[in-house]
Design goal:
With 96 residues, this protein is an all-alpha fold. Helix content is 74%, strand content 0%. It has one domain (2-91).
Length: 96
């Protein structure tokens, strides 16, 4: 039962980070954030499949969720935050 909650939390985190990357890309137009948003969409799909599978088979489902989190790794990014606070960085508000 807790496995499903863990998988859902992982899905929400990947989705939140993907939406943040999309917002930063729309504001700045930097290619690294576009690539990160695309990887986030692929990762969120894999994590969603793993979350749905976790309800039936917990261990293989969590393995697929972990693979999705591994896909979500982002590469090197340009600096878009200069004087932004923690909340502004979390929400994707850029200084550019």
């Amino acid at each position: 039962m807790y496995y499903t909650y863990i998988a859902m939390l992982a899905y929400l985190v990947v989705l939140f980070l993907t939406l943040r990357d999309i917002r930063i890309y729309r504001r700045t137009g930097l290619a690294s954030y576009r690539k990160g948003a695309f990887k986030g969409l692929m990762a969120s799909t894999v994590v969603l499949v793993g979350t749905l599978l976790t309800t039936l088979f917990p261990n293989p489902g969590l393995l697929i969720v972990f693979i999705g989190l591994f896909i979500n790794r982002k590469g090197i990014r340009e600096k878009v935050f200069r004087d932004a606070g923690t909340i502004d960085r979390l929400l994707g508000k850029t200084d550019i």
